[in-house]
Amino acid sequence: MSELAVRTLSGVAMIAVALAAAAKGGNVFAVGVGLVAMAIYYEWTRLARGWGAIWWVTGFLYALIPALALLWIRERDASGLYLLLWTFIVTWSTDIGAYFVGRAVGKRKLAPAISPGKTVAGFWGGVAAAALLGGAWALLTGLGVALLFLAPLFGVAAQGGDLFESWMKRRAGVKDSGSWLPGHGGVLDRLDGLVPVAVLTAMAQIGGLT
User: How many degrees, rounded to 5, is the angle at CA 149 between CA 148 and CA 155?
Assistant: First the structure.
């Protein structure tokens, strides 16, 4: 089976699990988020081994804050599920758009010293995908016009989260944060973009923009 096929199948499986847990909400979603946060922290500590205690504290906050943000988004009000799915859609579409546009037409490197595989075309492909799919979901569900403008901005944030994790891996001298997910590496490899998007979405909700 090709690498793309493995990546696609495992990606679909992860999306299905995430959607099922999100739809269920309550304790099921809370436990799932908690387990994911634990996995993120575990992988963080492996990457940052020997970097000093401040990195362990930072990693704890890095895992905890987005986990709390996701729980806040889901349970805050009646539209919580729709907003949570918007958060997922923006993150996933950014990743998928960047991957396929980058592979198809990407030539100029975005940040070769940090992540040689990322391209400028891929970056804009991710932003465009976030804007289109995130915007479409916001309109379809009546979440508010503000999310039309936030979707591409959060698409940029998702890629910033990806680049930060790539920098950590380069400093640690590893290709992936783990090997739990076939075709994707570790949990942190897959959720590095969701971390900033979850936090920013919760902040937008608290600020009354959603």
Answer: 95
